[in-house]
Amino acid sequence: MKNKKTVFVSLLIVLSLLTSVVAIAVKNSDTAKYVKITVSGKSSYYSLEKNMKTEKNGVKIKIENNTAYVTDSTCRDKICINAGKLDEIGDVAVCLPNEVTVSITGKQGEQMLYSDTFIDTFDTVVTLYGYATSKAEFASYFKHFQSRMTKLSDLFDGFGECKEYNLYTVNKEAGNESVTVDEVLVKGVLFALDMQKKTEGYTDPSFGAVTKLWRDFINGEALKPDDEILAQAYEHCGIDKIKVENNGIYLTDKETLLDVGATAKGFCAELVADELVSMGMEDFCINAGGNVVVRGNKKDMDGWEIGIQNPFGEGSIMAVRVKNEAVVTSGSYRRYREGYNHIIDVKTLYPSSRYASVTVIADDSGVADAFSTALFCMDIEEGKVLAKKNNLEAIWITNEGDIIKTDGC
User: Fold this and answer.
1) Rg of the chain's alpha carbons, rounded to an integer?
2) How many CB atoms lie within 10 A of CB 309?
3) What DSSP letter does each residue of 236-248 carry, written as one string?
4) What is the DSSP letter of 252?
5) Could you say which of 22, 69, 284, 326 would form a disulfide bridge with 365 (CB–CB 3.0 to 4.6 Å)?
6) Would you give the distance in Å from CA 118 to the centre of its chain?
7) Residue 403: predicted pLDDT
8) Fold of the domain built from segment(s) 1-16+111-409
9) Mean pLDDT for the chain?
10) Are 37 and 43 in contact (CB under 8 A)?
11) pLDDT tens-digit map of 143-156
12) C-beta of residue 252 within 8 angstroms of C-beta of residue 175
């Protein structure tokens, strides 16, 4: 596990949260102003009153007459947002992919904790808690965070169309042709295939024909599938039916459906967390409906303490201490109908009811997401062996309320 130093910081997991960046914001006041330049996550400060020119990873930055300027002429991919003159607090310039961030602060290094929330991304409530030198600076981080998570949610949706080719498009063209999609979706599918192997088949991105039957039932759109219907759907599952080449994804069976629900939210939360670090955000916590990713510290502590949702009522049932890690919880209490939840056991084709919840702590949110699903469908001793094999910590809360943990928790 990364960085074992941990200290208490209060934060509750609730149901309802490369590239590089250049960002600039100016504070209009009589206090001293500083230009914060971050390169690959490491920050330096310069007085806004002192004229200067510099170049960081191909991004030209000039400070002149209490104004900051960003020039994208040397950006190798010419992917920049708001590059140019910036003179108000909250103004932001984003350059991808040069691993440079510039922001102008009112006080050198002084930060406060902010948070903001949005909904309907990955079917959950998503919150970002983080430190910034001003509300406007935090807003610039949050704007990028919300935009990226929303786009990624659309790309990884296997059951709904969006403005560009997404997983739904791949499913729609099953048995017909390969679909060229965004590179990040290709990486996400390859990650899901890798997790299928590491979880010993307990997560399976080819299982969409089965999961769709249960999804439709839980959403009240269909009757509960019987054994015969499930068996028929299962005939169209199998990772051998998924072909990935360059940026193209092809399903050889026209009835096969890709569903990366066991990994997508965690994979994307990890990706966006890395982007926020590249933008210069050092201390923050993402909570995407039970998928929590933390970086750095809460300022009065060294790390973050994450509360594990009580599956039988309100509040948390216990807490874990982490730093630069992910904490992901899968629970039978989250989405259900008539006692059936959304976590499908690939061995039985039915929703698993073994536990009230399973939480996994890992260095990577996508990994924690996959294994929280896998361990939810396995007996505890088998799960402990798999967790140890993959350098993970896990917490099981049984249906009777007992708490069972791996040795490192």
Assistant:
1) 23
2) 25
3) T--GGGEEEETTE
4) S
5) 326
6) 14
7) 97
8) T-fold (3.10.520)
9) 85
10) yes
11) 999 999 999 999 99
12) yes
